[in-house]
Amino acid sequence: MELLLDTDFIIKMARYSLLDAFDELAKAKNHAMLPFRYLYEIKDKMRRAKSDPAESVFGSHVALSSCQSFVARGLEMAPVQDYDVFNDLREIEGMDQGESILVEYMLRETNALMLSGDKKMINGLNTQDGDNFRPLLQNRIVYLNRLILTLALGAGWDEVRRRVCENASCDAALYTALEPTLSKPDAEAKLYKMTVEYERSSRGLLRASL
How far apart are CA 209 and CA 19, in angstroms? Predict the structure, then answer.
């Protein structure tokens, strides 16, 4: 399947220094045959961050550099084709312009899979305003927590947990699940429960694997 990455997902994975690990996972799952697609706005965020990466959304020079290298291997999202659908998507609470571009593309290209770090968009699609679109999006969105859990179980739990906990402000819910004061079994159980419960509450939108 073709992978569509929202901006929040790319930035968080860069801050966790997990973009390389994600690349390897995508290859293992045979998703590397097609370049991933990203939103135009990531380039603008990288450009604005150059003056002071540590004070930007990237949080560090390392994360910005990692993001630049990663994005260079992808393709920018194609322009919107159906503006009626796009405008209807923009009316959904929690759906910003970029996410509406991604979803409009998904509704046309049924072989596309979205990776997202934004709960507001997913929650918005689960409202009444998202009823018309949800049937075509079933099992086609992978939320950030699932990727973190998959990488932790496959690439090394202790290392992934360390990287998340070093960036406590990046995602408060993830940090709370993995915080250093918890024992390893408790952290594993907490992240698993949080991930599965959110997927089950998504009315079929979220899938449990890449």
Answer: 17
